[in-house]
Design goal:
single chain; alpha/beta; 6-stranded parallel β-sheet; 17 helices; 17 strands; 43% helix
Length: 447
Amino acid sequence: MKKTIKDIDVKGKKVLLRLDLNVPLNKETGEISDDTRIMESLTTINYLCESRAKVLICSHLGRPEGIDKKYSLKPVADRLEKILKHKVFFAEDTIGKDAKAKAKVLNDGEILVLENLRFDKREEENDATFCKELASLANIYVNDAFGTAHRKHASTYGVAKLLPNAVGFLMSKEIKVINSILDNPKRPFIAILGGAKIKDKIPVIENLITKADSILIGGGMSYTFKKALGGNVGKSLVDEEKITLAKELIEKAKANNVELVLPIDTVCATEFSNDAKPKKFPSDQIPDEFMGMDIGKKTIKLFKRYIKNAGTVVWNGPLGVFEFNKFAKGTNKIAKFVSKSKAFSFIGGGDSASAVIKSGYAKEVNHISTGGGASLNMLEGKILPGVDVITNLEDENEPKKEEAKKKAGTKKTSSSKTTKKQPAKKATTTKKTTAKTSSTKKTTAKK
């Protein structure tokens, strides 16, 4: 178990808090179009402020090449101030004069947001000097940015090695949920995998084949499996280099007694457009001039049966071109079934989360991950650098246990020595007492 902020004393300490504030911005106005990631970080921010810590927030935003003010975190700091209804300070740099000066005078319970980490290329390089400069601003490091936990960057890995560290509430929850699903799922355990590219999901399928009861495959990646089984998929997206691997995965699933469920009908079109006319075909009989765009009604009903009886549902990847309303029905229907299911439902981040949010059923699922790449990596069975670097509570307690054992051993030895000497002392005391008594008797006799 990783150390959390509840396991450390933050009062009066400067806490470098790594968050994932990579919020979407309106391309025309530059304003924040969705503040979900800010809202998800509030529990940890509020806890630190209420615990009287000096909070230094750091994050990246977008993929800037050098300093680019359109990716500044100033709008994020302003939005956070509006949400919290108290002053949030902003540093014009990350490890420069402004950041150092404002961090130095920060009072207990106050917040300082540092400028975009990626304005300095050394952040993504995990540069040693940059790590030291960033770490020098604080006494404690807390990571609550699960969405970047699969990155070995300065702010997610390097700094954590230089300071006492812990995870925030959001990160802790993500780790617990995913580990619980993989280690002890309520069965039947159903995985729904979609998305465009099979290569992105191969490690996930390989890992889940040893854990899940059934794996339902849709989206663009399903056509590679259909072709591997000898079906005709027309102009649908196919990874020719992965056809042999798809065959191997099908056989591996059989060997592990896991059902690999593929679409039986497909909504197709002759062009990749929302204006294209939809037409349905059996999934292995798509005409050459058509491409698959969504799962069909029969497949929706088939998938529904598995979801209805599931104990755990993990969903990663849309089941069609959900960006186009004409071809979003399959994804929306599955989102509805998952949300209404009695199963524990877990939605991977990225496109999966976007699809569920867009479908309107986000509030009815148990957990929507804040990290697309990070959750995918954990489902693959990989160790995330940003998680691995955080101190294990057991490791920190081990020296204390050893010290307690040593003290206990010292007390026993001391007690043992005392016990051996004690009878001799008692004997001496008895003799002295007897002598005194004798003396008293003699005195009495004389009288």
